Amino acid sequence: SKLTGTISPTKLNPWISSYGQDPFWELGFHRAHAFSVCDSHRQRQGSRLRRRHPLSTTIAVKSPQSPRKPVFPMHTGTSLSRLTSSVRKFLLPLVAAGTVTTAAATFHASRFTVPPGHRAVILDRLHGVSGTSIGEGTHYTVPWIRKPYIFDVRDKPHTFSCLAHTKDLQPVNLSLAISLRPELSKLPETFNHLGLDYDEKSLPAICSEVQTIVANYDVDQLLLKENNSGVLDDIHGSLVERAKRFNVLVVDISVLDVSCGEQVAQAVEQKQVARVEAETSKNLVVKAEHDKEAAVRRAEEELEAAKQFAELPEDVHEQLLAQSRAEAQREVDKVLAMFEDAANSSRSSVVDASNPSS
Question: pLDDT by residue (tens digit) across 218-276?
């Protein structure tokens, strides 16, 4: 009671208003320190302070220039530093591991390998498809910006069938085997228009070209092997030209099977048999004519030889006859010698067979 009535806070500072007199102003403390002292007294002394100084716990300060700041206890800075150090110890390994993982993932994403028989086309997200292709080996690129696409540039065999109509309006089924590969100099353009599955996209156009070629020939020209060589040449040339429009090279083409209806096949077979018979008859007539001409020529030659022989003198006739007899005798002796040798060999074999002990 003696402390409460000596000094009024409003006399020291008109901006301070209180609901009662504060005993701590008498001791000369700063107003903020007075608040902290009051708080500490409230915490430590409790009801005893409230009994002795009932108005000391209800001090209100109004300061428009500097609002009241919260007062932390003395050990707050130490706890915060401890918390920061523990968080730092926990986060540093995570940051290091994340950095190493990111670097490894970036390095792995930047490296790519082109296997043998393949080439790579680079797609740049900023500038589009690159103008050149990359060969075999290990290469590096900028990840997530330049993406490689691997092309298989080896010969790819394909088998396809198509239904076509001939010149005489007969349906024919053709089975063909074709080998394709992309043109290396135009690989980026092929990727830009057709993609990696260039062969699957170009085969329908090739099949339509086969139908166009078959429409220029009859059915017997396709079914008969001796007539379809020209058809195969036309198919090969047309498909090569057609594939060049897609930047694709045709390596090989072969016709596996050509089939049609049963009635059409029988008609073609009968037509072929009749054609063979006609050619046989024609050959027989030609042979008879040749035999006739040969007989006439032989008779004329014999007549000419007889005339020349008749004009020769008598001594020449005798010499020619003697020469003819000598040639005939030599032929007879040669034949007799052959028979004698055969008889001797057979006789020796019989003797050997009868004396097996010797």
Answer: 887 787 766 667 778 888 888 888 888 888 998 888 888 888 877 777 777 777 777 77
Residue 106's nearest CA partner among 83, 81, 140 is 140
CB 199 within 8 A of CB 180: yes
Structure tokens at 327: 């040639």
Q: How far apart are CA 69 and CA 170, in angstroms?
A: 103
d(CA 75, CA 28): 26
Q: Which two tokens stand for residue 170?
A: 């007969």
Q: What angle do CA 202, 204, 210 make, to 5 degrees?
A: 110
- Please state the length of the chain: 358
| Residue 330 one-letter amino acid | R
Question: Using an 8 Å Cβ cutoff, are 218 and 138 in contact?
Answer: no
In sequence order, which residues have a C-beta less than 8 Å from that of residue 219 and are 6 or more positions away? 166, 168, 170, 172, 260, 264, 268
According to CATH, what is the number of the domain 155-260? 3.30.479.30
Q: Are 210 and 173 in contact (CB under 8 A)?
A: no
Specify the DSSP element, H or E, that contains 151: strand 146-152
Q: Which amino acid is at 28?
A: G
The string over 64-93, giving b where at least 16 C-beta atoms fall within 10 Å of a residue's C-beta and e elsewhere, is eeeeeeeeeeeeeeeeeeeeeeeeeeeeee
Domain ranges of the chain: 1-63, 91-154, 155-260, 312-347
User: For the segment 268-308, what is each residue's pLDDT rounded down to a tens digit?
Assistant: 777 777 777 888 888 888 888 888 888 888 888 878 877 77
Residue 53 vs residues 1, 8, 13, 62: alpha-carbon distances, Å: 8, 15, 22, 22
pLDDT in tens, 61-77: 444 455 555 544 444 55
